[in-house]
Amino acid sequence: MDLVPALEEPLRQPLKSVLGPATAKVMAEHLGLLTVGDLLHHYPRRYEERGQLTHLADLPMDEHVTVVAQVADARLHTFASAKAPRGKGQRLEVTITDGSGRLQLVFFGAGVHKPHKELLPGTRAMFAGKVSVFNRRLQLAHPAYELLRGDPDESVETWAGALIPIYPATAKLESWKIGKALQTVLPTAQEADDPLPGSLRQGRGLVPLPEALLKIHRPHTKADIEDARARLKWDEAFVLQVALARRRHADAQLPAVPREPTPDGLLASFDARLPFTLTDGQQRVSREIFDDLATDHPMHRLLQGEVGSGKTMVALRAMLAVVDAGGQAAMLAPTEVLAQQHHRSITEMMGELAEGGMLGGAEQATKVVLLTGSMGAAARRHALLDLTTGEAGVVIGTHALIEDKVRFHDLGLVVVDEQHRFGVEQRDALRGKGKQPPHLLVMTATPIPRTVAMTVFGDLETSVLDQLPAGRSPIASHVVPAADKPHFLARAWERVREEVGNGHQAYVVCPRIGDEEDDPKKSGKKKSPESPEDAAEKRPPLAVLEVADQLAKGPLQDLRVEVLHGRMQPDDKDAVMRRFAAGETDVLVATTVIEVGVNVPNATVMVIMDADRFGVSQLHQLRGRVGRGSAPGLCLLVSEMPEASAARQRLNAVAATLDGFELSRIDLEQRREGDVLGQAQSGARTSLRMLAVIEDEEIIAEAREEATAVVAADPDLTHLPALRTALDALLDEEREQYLDKG
Fold first, then answer.
1. Mean pLDDT along residues 353-371
2. What element of type H or E holds 330?
3. Rounded Cα gap, residues 493 and 513, in angstroms
4. Contact at 8 Å (CB) between 330 and 401?
5. How far, CA to CA in Å, does 698 sit from each of 194, 248, 442, 692?
6. pLDDT one-digit tens code per residue, 8-57
7. Among 232, 275, 463, 596, which is least packed, fewest CB within 10 Å?
8. What is the H or E stretch that residue 139 is in?
9. How far apart are CA 638 and CA 496, in angstroms?
10. Rounded to an integer, what distance in angstroms lies between the CA atom of residue 223 and that of residue 204?
């Protein structure tokens, strides 16, 4: 949020740089900090007190850390090596401590002289480096350090109580150097223009922005930090929510054709032939959608639901309602496999109602057309013609639907499946195909915590399907510790054979395809791993082609095993899926191409190899492919990670609950918001630095209310120029509107 010219001043300029050119270059390249404002909004990750020490026992492996500690011991060793054959090689080993744990520092060669003089026992300093393991002990090799000497004018109490900001740093620029650069630009904070309306700030007792910036970088007390954080969190939440509120407001001004189903039309005929009753949830969400479709401005609704909660059924009923009202409906799927799958299941569900214009088609029938990039020219021409004439009421396709050549007769509804794979540009391109903006329904099978929905999909109203249709079976999930208990893995393959013996089918999922060329960087000599965790981490992920081969020759011999992955030709993929759906294949060894939308009720068991390589939400998605029929489902999560590792704890969490919303919270707490906000994090200015989406639930909800009120009163923000400027910085064109890229 670079607000005024002083804060927009580049850190690196040809004539007069704010910082040294080398420092400014590293900040731009490694931290994405380009202006004075960017640097002021690079907040400390945490604070150390000089009188206290970092908890060394909790240091994360392979991460760049900054610690404050005391030297316990320093020893200089000589040794012989290729470079110093006469035993003149020197190695300085320094042990630092915080009372709870110890950490070894090591310096070699000419690099030992300065630390040997300075790092004497009892000395306190800040050390920065990458945590590694040597001889089963944590160490920092050649860390940078800054001695903590009290200022001669400071009293011991002041010095010991001073709060040292620790900044997100890089190997090229230590935290304390960032701190020194910040001291240079901190006076500029006085000129920061405040984006929060005065009444909001006073009503909530928030400090002004210049004061918040000073307190976050130079706090005198912990209360200063709290004041600053409370204020800066509000900035992030409020500006983001204003952007979303303005988008909602603009959309509400657009005209749309109201679409109401006719009482005895296509939808009524479809409902009459359903062999089951809709769940209460499906009926409630359908009502919300039909109410939106009947208005004269475009619906913008997010439909999120558990894996297998029947979202496709709800979406199909909405599409049929629009066809009833004389319009067309398009469903956009992220992959060809999924588009074909949707086309197949929708035509099956509709039966003769999908045979419009054909012999045997029902009276109210329409045509259901598939359009993908790999279709033959003749089939494609035919499909395009059906769209232009309006013969096809329902079209299902991939990105091919967005192309310029595609013309609709009267596009009334766009359904986007798996929103997180589509950017805002694609969504808008498809919406632009209607004579007036069509209604929009976005579906996602990854349950999203309420706050994330408000932050990422804040321009959409949300409907939630949280109950499973009758007839769905529970899924039992178990972790299979392949390294600790190899006989568990053998038992897993026996279970697969038992399920196939009972007339069912199985999936085996692997993280990799296996036909990649070996990466030269990864070949060559490897150090022997230090621990089972390292061994599991360093081994390449298991691959579909290798695993399928091993299973067919080994534990699953005599079963019909096939493979499916993203690099196969579309026709081949479709043929494999058809054979599996028809029960002609016993075991499908696949990558995550089966993650969404694949529906084979006879498949009852899934084995996920190297399950620790997948995210929590992805595992939940994959698991949802089994238990779709009347027989209970079984999901086995195979991992070589040791019992105590974080990866195993994550798998235990997945095995322990089938509640996708609970899992998405766990996932978010572990991954933080960066991944959730997608491309948000590519631009330094646009990322959430202070706001934690799960912890700050209340702030986000309150900011949404405040933002909606502000935009309703002043849509163009004419009376709030500072807020406008902050908004322009958030949505600057290069970084695109990341808001919709969930």
1. 78
2. strand 328-332
3. 21
4. yes
5. 22, 21, 25, 11
6. 777 776 555 567 788 888 888 888 888 888 889 899 988 877 666 667 77
7. 275
8. strand 137-141
9. 14
10. 17
Give how far Cα 438 sits from Cα of 257, 295, 311, 369, 514, Å.
8, 12, 20, 19, 43
Distance CA 70, CA 259 (A): 72
Q: pLDDT value at position 421?
A: 52
Under 8 Å between Cβ of 305 and 448: no
- The side-by-side arrangement of strands in the sheet containing 411-417 is 367-371, 392-397, 328-332, 411-417, 439-444, 300-305, 461-465
For 62, other C-beta atoms within 10 Å of its C-beta total: 10
Please state, in angstroms and rounded to a whole number, the distance separating the CA atoms of residues 300 and 289.
10
Q: Tell me which H or E stretch contains 587.
A: strand 587-590
List residues bridging with 574 in a β-sheet.
none
Contact 167, 178 (CB under 8 A): yes
Q: What is the pTM of this model?
A: 0.68
638 phi and psi angles, rounded to 5 deg: -90, 130
Whether the CB-CB separation of 101 and 57 falls below 8 Å is answered with yes
pLDDT of 539 > 90? The answer is no
Does the pLDDT at position 142 exceed 50? yes
* CA–CA dist 316, 218 (Å, integer): 57
3 state DSSP class of 363: coil
What the block records as the tokens of 549 is 């081969």
pLDDT value of position 570? 80
Cα–Cα–Cα angle for 211, 216, 217, nearest 5°? 105
CB atoms within 10 A of CB 627: 26
Q: Are the CB atoms for 703 and 241 separated by under 8 Å?
A: yes
124-134 and 137-141 strand pairing:
antiparallel
Residue 242 has a CB neighbour count (10 Å cut-off) of 25
Q: What is the CA radius of gyration of the chain?
A: 30
The residue to which tokens 């580049």 are assigned: 10
pLDDT at 736: 39
Q: What is the pLDDT of residues 289-302, one digit of tens each?
A: 999 999 999 998 98
